[in-house]
Amino acid sequence: MFENKKSNDNEINQFNFRTDLATERRDLYKKANSVENEIDGIESTKEEIDENISVEKVKITNEQGEKAIGKPIGNYITIDVKKLKIAQEEEIQKASEVLSNELRNIISQHIAQQDEIIVLGLGNIYVTPDSLGPKVINEIDVTRHLLNYAPEYLEEGTRSVSAIAPGVLGTTGIETVEILKGIVENTHPKLVIVIDALASRSIERISSTVQISDTGIIPGGGVGNARAEISENTLGIPVIAIGIPTVVETAVLVNDSLDLFIEKLQKEAKSNDYLNKLKDEDNYEEIKEALIPQDYNLIVTPKEIDDLIENMKDIVARGINFAIN
Amino acid sequence: MFENKKSNDNEINQFNFRTDLATERRDLYKKANSVENEIDGIESTKEEIDENISVEKVKITNEQGEKAIGKPIGNYITIDVKKLKIAQEEEIQKASEVLSNELRNIISQHIAQQDEIIVLGLGNIYVTPDSLGPKVINEIDVTRHLLNYAPEYLEEGTRSVSAIAPGVLGTTGIETVEILKGIVENTHPKLVIVIDALASRSIERISSTVQISDTGIIPGGGVGNARAEISENTLGIPVIAIGIPTVVETAVLVNDSLDLFIEKLQKEAKSNDYLNKLKDEDNYEEIKEALIPQDYNLIVTPKEIDDLIENMKDIVARGINFAIN
Amino acid sequence: MFENKKSNDNEINQFNFRTDLATERRDLYKKANSVENEIDGIESTKEEIDENISVEKVKITNEQGEKAIGKPIGNYITIDVKKLKIAQEEEIQKASEVLSNELRNIISQHIAQQDEIIVLGLGNIYVTPDSLGPKVINEIDVTRHLLNYAPEYLEEGTRSVSAIAPGVLGTTGIETVEILKGIVENTHPKLVIVIDALASRSIERISSTVQISDTGIIPGGGVGNARAEISENTLGIPVIAIGIPTVVETAVLVNDSLDLFIEKLQKEAKSNDYLNKLKDEDNYEEIKEALIPQDYNLIVTPKEIDDLIENMKDIVARGINFAIN
Amino acid sequence: MFENKKSNDNEINQFNFRTDLATERRDLYKKANSVENEIDGIESTKEEIDENISVEKVKITNEQGEKAIGKPIGNYITIDVKKLKIAQEEEIQKASEVLSNELRNIISQHIAQQDEIIVLGLGNIYVTPDSLGPKVINEIDVTRHLLNYAPEYLEEGTRSVSAIAPGVLGTTGIETVEILKGIVENTHPKLVIVIDALASRSIERISSTVQISDTGIIPGGGVGNARAEISENTLGIPVIAIGIPTVVETAVLVNDSLDLFIEKLQKEAKSNDYLNKLKDEDNYEEIKEALIPQDYNLIVTPKEIDDLIENMKDIVARGINFAIN
Question: Which is nearest to B240 in space by CA: B137, B92, B135, B109?
């Protein structure tokens, strides 16, 4: 389940970001266009919660900002959790509270206190790096069936919550949005929260970063396929996406590592004009071409992915449960 | 996901069968009503395929048969596989071929060669005895997305197959039929195959028996809830159910064991009138009442359930794939 | 991994207890021998910690007590946790603290503050009802390798802890004690803590009761096999066993359910002399014989075993970590 | 569990191979030293079994060969299986037969027909990329306990086979060789087969290549630690290693990708002297230094690792079972 580049990339946005994180796109755009200050149509703030957790908010406010970084107008909140693979209970709880606060805030901008919510977990339970969505769904405190069949066991004013992990296109044969549309028509929720895997530029962010946005997503299976979009456009209700990078493409990894390598040569005065130029350019496409003849451009994930997914699952599930119940 | 007793049990059908297997119900009815020959409105045949595999077909042909055993008019095919927990590849393959033949036959009575099929796996992947449905879905050869996006990779005349394991009411908050209805409306299959867990009277049948029927099912969550039925009534297309017993209720186990115990006392001339009468009666309700004050009437499953599920998954998945592709 | 009946059952101990819990054996002995007060050589106390957790301590003080219930002289502490399958974090933490206190106390009776400990998890990770031991081992905070290779990262006075889950006889071909003996000879721990599955009379106790004892165990594979014993006799160092019932034999379940059933008939004045006598006797052997011709005497486990094991794993792992580090 | 470079790297062997595959080391040595033909002390042959499977045998025959590639005198057989992640049953069976033949051949050079064998699976069942060893062990047909307790069920002349997956240093606190030594002393096998994860230069080889060797291994935990070696030296019996690459270090990936990238620039006449020189050198150490300040030099694995491990497990388990039973 990997969000794809919008096809409406325009002349300003000449390069391919290869990341779904608004904050990385903003940085890449500024670097590529030598912009010093904030881009027109984009506002952002950054806050360090503690030594391991930071929150960055990027707000795209107009069409100019939208064009610059190829993301729709809306809110993009990135929570980074350092050293997640060795995180203890206390840090996981802290991170889930940060997520919960941001989520509660963004939900309240779209629906009322008791409006029905459905949580959608994208991904494949049988592929470890892609199993976060279904694992979170298993931990969501659903109430919809109890409100229908046994309301006496619930407190007055309990919000109706349902949750589903429908599987991926490759194992169902059905676009997720086709499944979801029917459910929305039959069960009438007011808002969708979708948990999705993202592409990131940075392997450090694998299963350690969460991006909350309110602009919907396009799952991986739906390349160039408008029908696959999961958004207010296709569903008629607001969609809040919780996206987590879980894999990285080899060419992205090599491209970024090459920059770090040249940077090191520069510091040691061992670089030269050619390399300096190489660093300023984006060599992704050429690296990709160099790798692909060898069938070498794999999608990779860190060895510790099992533990990362386990800890991130706790953060996201608690974050959602606390925000919506 | 346990199919429930039809509420239309009538005066003839006074006792509760506590089994979803038509063959067990037929036997119980004949015993309770001292019927020697076949019941009016019920036809059946039995075939031993080899020393471990047998197939029994029960056909309910009229309302009389329907009333007798509380199952709708239709076909009920039971495949028993002995010693499944230690079955080798060869026996699993054999059993899957038997299943496949029966399935192909029953499907051809309802739809044409290339008509679209959706396979539905009920159950909860995180509860071992209830995980068969989702595990089978993961092995179904789906083609629908390829027919839509890459038909050039498929042979001419490939049937469109999709598959979904939507989860259980307790973790989704949504009745399975509500999920399925939307999918059927959006994707237009001509037939549903549903994999479901059944109740059986016999612990020997746990994950060792498959019942194929063409009359739909009511999942466990929907007690007394007509909306929960998964059938041609609710979906508008035929539903073929593949049901597998995976658990047993303690009271059923004790009731049946008590009969075996008294039988043994009788053989040894150690029984008496009271016990003889006890054996002829159905003591399920009283045993249940005796157990419940202690919270003792659990649902149990054999220790080897992991291996049983694994082997049965192979039989059912291969059986379906071979029958429909 | 099921502890077996000692072969030295003597004339006093005529019946087979079919439980490894000292507290159940004591009750059975008292009932069978119509003993009103405490048995000679056996002392016991019971404490309710809160509404869900209780602790019972049985101490066998002399050979008379040993003969009565067929368990060696020593301490047997039973912790019962009610409603474990729906336990929340708080109750799991509470139960782990109770376990930890008892464990710390019993360990201190055998070794000094910093003496090396090895934790041994019996069972098979691939068989859900038998997977508790290996799952606990994965959570034990081991320090032995750090003390050897990187002591600078540990606090002064850290105890050396190692842990192993060697697998079961059926998958290794080697008696656990043969594996353990070599490790003890090569690594020189001063005490073994072994996590083991027990037989219990009560299905209510499945994965809800913990028995701590300091008298060693005999794993399931070693029927009538003295070499298989894991105890101070075979290893030369004290062995503390943490045993948890995880399965029940059908004949035991039926035998006990039959008693509950007759009890109910008695209350309703529907019993008779024969049944009253039946209840006073132990019908296990006859029930077993009645069931076995049908290959019906399975080992069963509750449907919720996945969740029970998960919660019990947390209690035992935390209990051990807190007691020994 | 990653085999480490022998510490006896000498002046000839100046660079670090960063691979445990003899065939990759031979190629690297030849390239670095501009050797055209075979290296003195090294013989090799290569055979294409079919379009997907090839076998390469490297034999180190004297100290000269040993020094050249830093591997002890002995046999190194590499089986490559292309497209393993999408392999069907037929190809898996074929690959397992190739492995089986090579294994049977190499075993027969060390022990007699019925001599006892112990199979050792290194790795951690809870870390997907490191779970191959334990998963293979679960499928080994062990006979030792049956030969001891129930020989009547076995054919005359059955070899005694045992198997163990002891876990990793980080979860046991004990070096694998310390565990194994005790078992060997107590059970007296004549040969060890050890399944181990290897380092490779090529991400294409992840879980797609098997190296059989008869010279023992050093598990990952034992860096610079002679005691950790699992070999005839430490155990007194021959050790046959079956090694499978399952992860790759980012710096290795980047180093090799950089070469491919420069090669592409060269072909397009876009390279320069500096880059050409860069390509001829080994930049691993500098790349590593460039990456490490960012904590960027992770160990990565392909996204499809679950399926790769599953298929490779079948190949290795069947290969061993067929070779030794």
Answer: B109
SS3 breakdown of chain C: % helix, strand, coil, rounded to 5? 45, 20, 35
Contacts of C146 in chain D (CB under 8 A): 173
Domain ranges in chain A are 48-59+74-247+304-324, 251-300
Q: Return d(Cα B100, Cα B322) in angstroms, integer.
A: 6
Task: Identify the helix (H) or strand (E) that includes residue A120.
Answer: strand A117-121
- Contact (CB<8Å) A174/B183: yes
Sign, CA torsion A7/A10/A12/A14: positive
Which amino acid is present at B23? T
CATH numeric code, C48-59+74-247+304-324? 3.40.50.1450
Amino acid (1-letter code) at residue C191: L
pLDDT at D224: 43
Question: Is residue A217 scored above 80 in pLDDT?
Answer: yes
**How much is the pLDDT for C276?**
83
Least Cα distance to D253 among A252, C307, C258 occurs for A252
Which has the minimum average pLDDT: A2-11, D52-61, D113-122, D123-132? Answer: A2-11
Per-residue pLDDT, averaged over B264-285, amounts to 81
Give the position of tokens 């509270």.
A97
DSSP string, A302-319: ETTHHHHHHHHHHHHHHH
pLDDT tens digits for range C243-253 = 999 888 888 88
Query: Tokens at residue D196, please?
Result: 């181990």
User: In this model, does residue D1 exceed pLDDT 60?
Assistant: no
Q: Which residues in chain D are contacts of C185 at CB distance < 8 A?
A: 182, 185
Mean per-residue pLDDT over chain B, rounded: 87
Mean pLDDT of D210-237: 78
Residue type, C131: S
Instruction: Name the one residue in this structure whose structure tokens are 């499953």.
Output: B301
> Has residue A13 got a pLDDT over 50?
no
How many residues are there in chain B?
325
Contact B163 A185 (CB under 8 A): no
- Specify the higher pLDDT residue, B74 or D8: B74
Quote the crossing angle between the two packed helices A250-267 and A284-291, to the nearest 10°: 120
Among candidates B126, B264, B283 on the partner chain, residue whose Cβ is nearest the Cβ of C306: B126
Choose the most confident range, by mean pLDDT, from B250-259, C13-22, C142-151, D249-258. C142-151
- Write the CB contacts of A69 (distance below 8 Å, at least 6 apart in sequence): A13, A17, A22, A25, A26, A29, A39, A42, A60
Please answer yes or no on whether D167 and C125 come within 8 Å at the CB atom.
no
Rounded Cα distance, D210 and D315, in Å = 10
CB A118 within 8 A of CB A187: yes
Closest in B251, B253, B296 to C204, CB measured: B296
| Mutation for testing the B interface, residue in C125, C128, C255 having most B CBs under 10 Å | C128
pLDDT given at position A16: 67
E strand intervals along chain C: 42-48, 53-60, 74-81, 117-121, 161-164, 191-199, 209-213, 239-249, 299-302
Rounded CA-CA distance C193/C103 in Å is 10
* Region for residue A184 given its phi and psi (left: phi exceeds 0; alpha: psi -120 to 50; beta: otherwise): alpha
- Asked whether the beta carbons of residue A167 and residue B137 sit closer than 8 angstroms, the reply is yes
Say what angle helices D284-291 and D250-267 make with each other, to 10 degrees: 120
C265-306 residue pLDDT tens: 888 887 778 778 888 777 888 888 888 777 777 888 888 899
Could you give the C-alpha distances from D242 to A271, B171, D72, D95, D120, in angstroms and in order? 43, 43, 16, 14, 10
Tokens representing B231 are 């059938």
Residue with tokens 């996201």: A316
Percent of chain D clearing pLDDT 70 (strictly above): 93
